[in-house]
Predict the structure.
Amino acid sequence: MTIEHHPGDELLLAYGAGTLDEATSLLVATHLALCPRCRRRLDLAESIGGEWMNRTRANGTVDETGIDSAMAFAPEDDEPAGPATAGSGPFLFPQPLRGYAGGDAADLGWRAVGGGIRQVRLKTRGKGAKARLLSIAAGTRVPEHSHGGEELTLVLAGSLYDRGKWYRRGDVDAADASVVHRPAAGPEQDCICLAAADARLKFSGVIPRLLQPLHGF
Amino acid sequence: MGRVIRNAVRSVQWGMEKTGNVLGFRRRGPTRGTAVADSATAGAPNPGTGPSRHSADERTLSARIEAVAERSDTAAFAELFRHFAPRVRAYLLRGGGDAGQADDVVQDTFATVWRKARLYDRRRATAAAWIFAIARNRRIDVYRRERRPEFDPRDPAFQPDPLPDGERALTAVQRAEAVRKALNTLSEEQRDVLRLAFYEGETYAAIAVRLGIPLGTVKSRARLAFGHLRAALEARREALT
């Protein structure tokens, strides 16, 4: 698998700093599970955090009774076979996505939102972007739309064509508020992707605009 | 144990020297002197020089985590706590929590260090970077009441690393050393963005408001800063090969 389209460095940096909202973090973390190149960049981002912490003036004294209470917990044994790693795959969704979705692509209750598109909304907390999984039927074009803010799309299966480029498993398509586009799924199979957008999509056509309140798309 | 405490004290003193130019957001003047001196050294990397005092300290700290992992070494854990707990606490207080909350998260962070020491990999992270990441996650959990989504290397769908190459050929300690020097050579504007993001936990949108500049400018400063650090790593790697 060769990933060609990565999240921008500013996103990897913010993920390392811990300042992204939960939905965007989910998308970046899922990309990281598939992308050793970006994991190296995350290592760099975290070493910046470590360096900053090293430069900190120690702030007051910390109560040393904390040493014993921290050790009151038993050290964790090797690999706990919890639900996080249950099953053997092959999985379409790497962690942490599988945990958020409550299963792999085939296990989910997809809801048709019209035009050959099905979706599953994912539950994330806090303000900011919302995350959802989309399944776009092979060869289907998404109605033309723009975004109130940035939209990130991580392809997990099939392919997506957008503004002259193809996106495949692991690739991230980033569209900011200035972009009006109508991405299309490749013809070979349904395209399954994870999208994180920080505002509702704005459809250009009349019909999708009428449907929007009904489907919450 | 006495030696480690002395090391800790030394690092605190070092931290205080550096604090002026890095954390003193509004401060100007004499603190710039330090940055200039540092950038002069960083500009002429000398691969022939032996490991710095700092790197030796960092290797000692990594070994402490490994001692906790391998034999639940309580003395090693106590040393880690004494070295890092005050720094973690300062980090949390910068991020806007109250003292009680900060103490809880410090406690939480070190309970995690104790329990998860086996997951520490000195090739990937220095002790400081690893503990920073734990504290960051606990902060998100407690302060923002959000989950922190993370990949899981044990997951069958995880794409493992190919053979070591490029940046990976540097040890985490060498990488931290390069980052330390390169941070001092960043423009003040770029360094401010990194400091606000990493240290104060501010989003780019909040940084834009705080500095009175467009969001796009904040993001491009972040990208430039990161590019600069990556170039410094690359230079370091080439100097070693």
